[in-house]
Amino acid sequence: MGFDLHQQALDGCDDSLRAALAGAGLPVDDLADAGRSFYRFSCDGATVGFGGLELYGEAALLRSIVVLPDRRGFGFGHAITLGLLDEAHRKGADAAYLLTESAAAFFQSLGFHPIARDEAPAAILTTRQAASLCPASAALMVRSLPA
Ligand SMILES: CC(C)(COP(=O)(O)OP(=O)(O)OC[C@H]1O[C@@H](n2cnc3c(N)ncnc32)[C@H](O)[C@@H]1OP(=O)(O)O)[C@@H](O)C(=O)NCCC(=O)NCCS
Predict the structure, then answer these.
(1) Residue numbers of the chain with a pLDDT score lower than 50
(2) Which residue among 11, 124, 132, 134 is least crowded, i.e. fewest CB within 10 A of its CB?
(3) pLDDT value at position 93?
(4) 3-class DSSP state for residue 83?
């Protein structure tokens, strides 16, 4: 990748995070709940996107991955996802899960594969993302760590 991506921890109440997620149609109702970590990703001092993590022992839920509309198609989405996978692994996770409605092919190119709901740990299935915020039609995907 021909760029340096800077990753900065962020409060879940951050307005720019909320606006980017809402603009992309991603859930915002649980941003301030405990147990979530969010990050701003920037390149040359300008924000390019955001991403988040929930950790449940050795299982991580990747969430809130968004690249700002005018920054899409330059590799930032891949770099953000890899940054989150690295962070999850450093915090002790050996598997990363996510839910997506429209980007399954994107995540497949990053090593994720779809699984049935009953194949995921209960801790992932009972997250607000899985249990209520994401539509039942959202694909549940997993990949092992490290990336
Ligand atoms: C999905 C998203 C993060 C990708 O970010 P990006 O910076 O454009 O991605 P990259 O530049 O790293 O990768 C681009 C590649 O992914 C593919 N891609 C991008 N979005 C895709 C999608 N929704 N579905 C399938 N493929 C997608 C592109 O076609 C391109 O493929 P190519 O390399 O073969 O040309 C971005 O489109 C986005 O923010 N979408 C809205 C929010 C969202 O859906 N988030 C995921 C759910 S948490």
Answers:
(1) none
(2) 11
(3) 97
(4) helix
Domain architecture of the chain: domains with CATH: 6-144 (3.40.630.30)
Cα gap 23→9, rounded to integer Å: 21
Protein residue with its CA nearest to atom 48 in ligand 1: 65
Q: If you measure from the C-alpha of residue 43 to the centroid of ligand 1, how many angstroms do you get, rounded to a whole number?
A: 17
What's the pLDDT score for residue 6?
97
The reported pLDDT for the residue numbered 28 is 96
Contact 76, 5 (CB under 8 A): yes
Report CA dihedral (119, 121, 134, 38) to the nearest 10 degrees. Answer: -140
Coil, helix or strand for 145? coil
d(CA 10, CA 37): 7
